[in-house]
User: What shape does this take?
Amino acid sequence: MPYNTYPIGAILFNFLFLMVAMAIEGYVLSKRLKYEKRISAFYAIAINLFSSMLGWLIFFIVEPRLSSPLRFELFSYVFFNRLDFSAGNSSLVTLIFIGLVVFIGTFIVKYLLLLLFSFAMTDPATDKKQPDPVEPRDTRRDYRNRQQNTNVVTTTLIANALSYSAILLIVFIRTVGVN
Assistant: This one.
């Protein structure tokens, strides 16, 4: 009879990380973009679930292609909560590089999803603007739209950085608490 081994600890910690990220990012979206709490919570839940799902999909595609030492370290951490850097500093540098790529990739995915959700949730009936034939081409409305787009980028970056910092703190506490 075959036995299946499931990384229950990793699954539960991923659930904890999602809850922390959703709460932090929902708060940041609410405060910085002036969304209602319900709307910012919806956006935070949606962007985190979609980005997490995409991240796991990429992980399952990339994992079989990893080198044997890196796969060993990955499984050692997921199943036993141990990092073994017996391969030297190159694996630590690889780990830091992968973390940076994941952070930047998650930021881009969350930003694009936030734009998509914001665009999909706007009501076209309330967004109709009366044409102003007298105003020049570069109006205050155009400036405000550019400013709002910059604000979304900054807000997404701040929310992602704060949630990743909180998750890193939890991982640090988990690692120190186990050893």
About this structure: Residues 51 and 109 are 6 Å apart (CA to CA).
